[in-house]
Amino acid sequence: MPGPVPNREADLARPRERKGSDVQSVTKGVLRDVKVPNADRNWHPIAKRLWDSLKSSGQSDFYQNSDWAFAYSLCEDLSYYKKAGKRSGQMLQTIYSAFERLLVTEGDRRRVRIELHEPEAEEQSAAVLAIADYKRDLGLD
């Protein structure tokens, strides 16, 4: 996923238009039930924190069992790296590059045109608001 991080869709002057060569067919499959494994108790605290953050992050809505297995393997590698006395910069770069495939950071997601947004506020129905107004007017509030 090399290259600059694209702007958010909302920041663009106009939506990106697809031209003939940009349009590609998509092969679709069926999502399966996902079982997220627990973090290894022996992992380095940073690896545990990253694992826990993956479970609560929006991009994990798209993860399947193979993605979780890959993330588990990477956290295992990161833990090994963090606990190692002598560290290799190349190993750390390789681990971080692999995490890009899981779209861990906002820049990684924007490069593949995935944006996470705040959940929309739930609006109360007109009936609920009318009843609340009625109770307030009667002094029952």
Automatic annotation (TrEMBL):
Residues 1-27 are annotated as: Disordered. It comes from the Bacteria. Residues 8-21 have a biased composition (Basic and acidic residues). This is Terminase small subunit. It comes from Streptomyces yokosukanensis.
